[in-house]
Amino acid sequence: MKPLFASFAGLIAFAGIFFAPGRSLAGLDYGPLPQTGYCYRYPDSSGGCGGTFTGFRLDSDPNTYAQVSTSTWGNGRYFYASYRGIYVGCAVSPYASQDLKNQIEKLPLFKGQFWISFDSSGYCTDIELSQASYYQQ
Amino acid sequence: MIRFVGMAAAVLLSGVAGALYQASRVEPRLAPADAVAGSPVEPGRSAPPPAPIDDRQLDALADRIASRVSARQGLAAPPAPVEPKAVPAPEATPQQRAAAGRAGDIVDRALSRGSLSPDDVRALRELGPQLQPAVQEALRMKLIQALNRQELRLDPRAGLP
Hints:
heterodimer, A: 4-stranded antiparallel β-sheet, 3-stranded antiparallel β-sheet, 7 strands, 23% helix, B: mainly alpha, 2% strand, elongated
């Protein structure tokens, strides 16, 4: 019984030493948020743009830009961009889901990474807004 | 200090695990057989044979089951999506028709030039309040589609109307 107890106590002590954190570490840190911007289009005129507004402003092509506008009049929710000679844009259809309308209305104030795609009719199909802990906020 | 806390936590956890193990070894107490309820047959006596069911009774039973199942399915099913009814736009007034004509001319000239100037955008914005929403939507989509076909350039200072 005594050797059994001793080995059990030893096991507990080993587990305590083994599993106790020696030193706590912070999470992933990839530094500042990469400020890039880009767009692409397919031959059927669908395509997408992604990055940050700052990234579009810092692009090597001085004609690169991105803009999002929302208005209370008509179908006033649209995005357009010029990226290294490519011109693209899309509007959120008045019949689109409320989710999509909510997303584009957040975009003008958003400083993180976004992604927006559109179909060949020029309607926005998806708007993704993204923040990540591993980039400095 | 952290290691000491870790060891203490491991000891505590092992104690809890041991208690749980002991608890799991206790045999469940079985209820006595005579405590089982719901048996209408007294011990030592055989149950009377069930009365035969004729076809009419079977059909009635089947109908009742079918109606109950369909009623439950009706309750469980999500409500059918309501198609948005297209509200017919009110007929355009002469002023609206004239504004739509002028806006259409501005857009067509911009498309033929391949660029939308700030003056075009300003003129379209001024005409905007006189345009029906559907007309403005159509003109905006015409510009965006031309943009995506690389047939139109926007001035970033003015953007899209």
